[in-house]
Each structure stands twice: as structure tokens, then as C-alpha cells.
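User: Teach me something about this protein's shape.
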Amino acid sequence: MKLDVTTLEGGAAGSVELSDDIFGLDPRQDLIQRYVLWQLAKRQAGTHKTKGRAEIWRTGKKLVRQKGSGGARHGSARAPQFRGGGRSFGPVVRSHEHDLPKKVRALAMRHALSAKARDGAILVVDNTSVADPKTKALKATFEKLGLGNALFIDGAEVNANFALAARNIPNIDVLPVQGINVYDILRREKLVLTKAAVDALEARFK
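Assistant: First, the predicted structure itself:
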């Protein structure tokens, strides 16, 4: 697959050949879904907690006598059916993380990239270098390129001025190539890759 390379100003900067093994697959939704569920479960805090009946500070005295009252045979005010009692089978602090094989994660990443390529939602730029970290100027540049909702993937290091200028623009994310992930690719309409990012991805998944 061959794509034209542009500059941030919209000028032509040659072309680049994208590997069909990475950007030319027929996307599988099941693999992409497995990766997204794994990623969201891994980042979930899991700090939800309610108190059980053993953690409630309340009298343990038997409420009423066992026989003769005509009522139920309750033993403790900490029981879940009483107001102020412990919750039965409530959430506890735990990890929601589950395993996903490394090869499945790599394959899901290639299918997500292929899905963007099939939709024509990939843009390749030569670099993301800007002279000054000016948000207003960079926003005007994005409007010229038609980038209102995009994920920028740079090389090993993101240009500092570009990152500073872009961080306050809504619906624009900037990541180094090591941080690329399926969830962020899917949640943005456009995927903008630098030539350094393309080279790094092909070296990673070849």
C-alpha cells in the first residue's frame, strides 16, 4: 500500500510504502474487541468496596426473644436485610486484569491499523517539528489538514514543542510509537503517523 507523505503545512513530501502484513489485513472485529476489553480491564482501578456484616460496628445482641413474639427469628442487627447492616455479596477490592497472549495482542494491533487503512483514515507526515509551542497556530494547522479528531503517533520521542502545543486541543492525542494501542487508535477518527513511526512499526511487526 502506497501513501503520500505530507508536511504539517500541507505540502507534499514524497510517498511511503506501507507493508500489507501490517496495514493490508482484513480486519477481524473479534481480535480487536478482545484487545480493547483486555486493555480497559487492565487499567480499571478495582478499588470498589462495601462493608460486609463482619465489618459493621453494631450490636450483636439478639433483637427479640426466640419464641413468643410472633416475629421472625432474627439473631443480629448486622444482617443484610436490616437498614445499616452489612451488604451481602458486595464488591471487594480486586484486580480486573486478565491474560491475553502477546501474539494475540500484536495481531490485534495489526488488524486495528489495517481497519484504519481500509477506511482511508491514515495520514503520514514527514515529522511533527514546530518552531514554537503555540496552541493557536497548531490548531489552525490542523484545521487546514482537516484534523479535528486525531491520534498522532511520533517516533521514539515526541517533539516537545508539538506535544506542548497539542495537549490543550480537544480530541487530539499525541503518543510516542511505544505507546500505540488499539483503544486509542479506535477512539479517534484519524491516525496520523510520522515517517519515523511507520519505520518503527514495520520493524516491530515484521
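Now, about its shape. The beta strands are 2-6, 12-17, 122-125, 150-153, 172-175, 190-194. The radius of gyration is 27 Å. If you'd like, I can walk through any region in more detail.
User: That's plenty for now, thanks!
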